[in-house]
Write a structure and sequence with these properties.
The protein is an alpha+beta fold. Helix content is 32%, strand content 23%. It has five helices and five strands; from the N terminus they run βααβββαβαα. A five-stranded mixed beta sheet has the order 1-2-3-4-5. The termini are far apart.
Length: 164
Amino acid sequence: MSVIIRKGTPADLPAAHRLIVELAIYEKAENEVITTPEQMLQDGFGDTPVFGFYVAERADSGAIVGMALYYTRYSTWKGRCLYLEDLIVTQSERGKGIGKLLFDAMVRECLNQNMALMTWQVLDWNTPAIEFYKRLGAHLDGEWMNGKLFRSQMEQWTFGTVAS
């Protein structure tokens, strides 16, 4: 099987969204996905795009079997960095080297944009993904905790001033 890795286009968004939902199901969080292909079109291809993505396309059928979605972040210590939000290969195509090809595309993107660092997250129970990253020689940092503040919390936020 031959696979083509290329930049994602607006036409790829429905397939990319299906992969996102597949990942959410795998992570037991299907109901957490609120993005739509239409929102992704605006966010990725509108006036101020906030993400980019690559797809893995089967050469024989044109089917999208994987994707890597990323955006630029800024580190006060390192400067411009690439954040790999999701690297997804559909379950039936795992173990065929597609994930490595997508990861290679992310490394190239970092180098081409002269970025100092690439970061991502992996769930502590996702052993196959952890082993994949370890095989690539990645540093997996167990020291940092992730903080989140959801929109529903922000809508209930109490704004105040700093005491003097």
